[in-house]
């Protein structure tokens, strides 16, 4: 489920902004800022199956008339450790801040959480 910040904090499933149910959903985020998602299965959000995706502003690009320089490669993808299970059956997502790659990782984790819960 995609929810507001207050719904995210309270694990409130009453009126989500969007609901994804196939287990193979793609979510396209086109705006910067925080985007909140959690699993709608009762008890899963309270057990930690939720994610706050913060899309940062992209850096300014060089003007078209600027001389071409070396090509920049994207930042490395952080290594992430996701435990197989925990006493509360909740997954913990740990990654370093500031990497845009977390967006793809978070979406993958959301898909995994949905598949595990259904």
Automatic annotation (TrEMBL):
InterPro entries: Cupredoxin, Phytocyanin-like, Phytocyanin_dom
Molecular-function annotations in GO: electron transfer activity
Low complexity bias (residue ranges): 62-71
Superkingdom field: Eukaryota
GO cellular component: plasma membrane
Domain Phytocyanin: 1-57
Residue span of region Disordered: 62-83
Entries under Pfam families matching the protein: Cu_bind_like
Protein name stated in the entry: Phytocyanin domain-containing protein
Organism of origin: Gossypium darwinii
């Amino acid at each position: 489920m995609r929810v507001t910040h207050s719904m995210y904090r309270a694990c409130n499933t009453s009126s989500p902004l969007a609901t994804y149910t196939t287990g193979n959903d793609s979510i396209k985020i086109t705006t910067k800022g925080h985007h909140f998602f959690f699993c709608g299965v009762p008890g899963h959000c309270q057990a930690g199956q939720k994610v706050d995706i913060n899309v940062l502003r992209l850096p300014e690009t060089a003007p078209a008339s600027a001389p071409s320089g070396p090509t920049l490669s994207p930042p490395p993808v952080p290594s992430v450790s996701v435990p197989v299970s925990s006493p509360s059956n909740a997954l913990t997502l740990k990654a370093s801040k500031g990497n845009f790659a977390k967006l793809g990782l978070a979406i993958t984790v959301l898909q995994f959480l949905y598949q595990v819960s259904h």
